[in-house]
Structure formats: C-alpha cells, structure tokens
Amino acid sequence: MRRADLHILSLALAVIVYAAVYVWNPPGPKYYPLLHDWAWQGPAGQPGMGWYARFAYAALAAGLAWGVAWAVLRRAALAERPAENLLVWTLSAAALGALAVAGICVIAEQFGN
Known about the structure:
The protein is mainly alpha-helical. The chain has 3 helices and 2 strands; from the N terminus they run H-E-E-H-H.
C-alpha cells in the first residue's frame, strides 16, 4: 500500500465519522451568550449555542477514527497487502457523500424552524 493510500483511506474514514457524529448531535453543554455562562440546560427563552460541544465531539471522534484507521492500515501496508483502487475510491466517495449529507442536515436544522 502506498503512503498516499494510507492518508486517503484514514482521512476518508475520519471525515465519515466526523460527519456522522456531527449529524447525530450528542447532548452537550451550551454557551448562553446573554448570560455569559455554560450550562447543560439553560433558562427558558435564552438562546444557546450548542455547536461548540457538537464540533468538539465530532472532532474528537474523527481524531480517534483517524488514529485507529492509520494504525490498522499501516499494519496492512507493512504486510505488503495491496490496496485496491476500488477501496480508495469508494471510501473517498463515501466521505464526500457524508459531508454532503451532514451539510444538508445542518442547513435543514438551521433554516427549517
């Protein structure tokens, strides 16, 4: 496996995980700018910004996915197992598709209400 294949595959998996966690939107603290405070549940009627935690969860999950993918693929490369071009293209296309779906979900969430 070429070094470029390692980068492409591990980053594609990280992008897919990032998009999935970002769309999943796990519960997290929100920042309430009018109160200058962080809270898991803010007072009624106060606008909260939850994208900070959403981004942090997605970035941590993507970083972990990248590290695991890199380690596994690196072992495969050392074992000299040839990477299939189909795998590289499929994961790259899946990563782009995951980003598109995540973008559509975020736009629908922001402008749907």
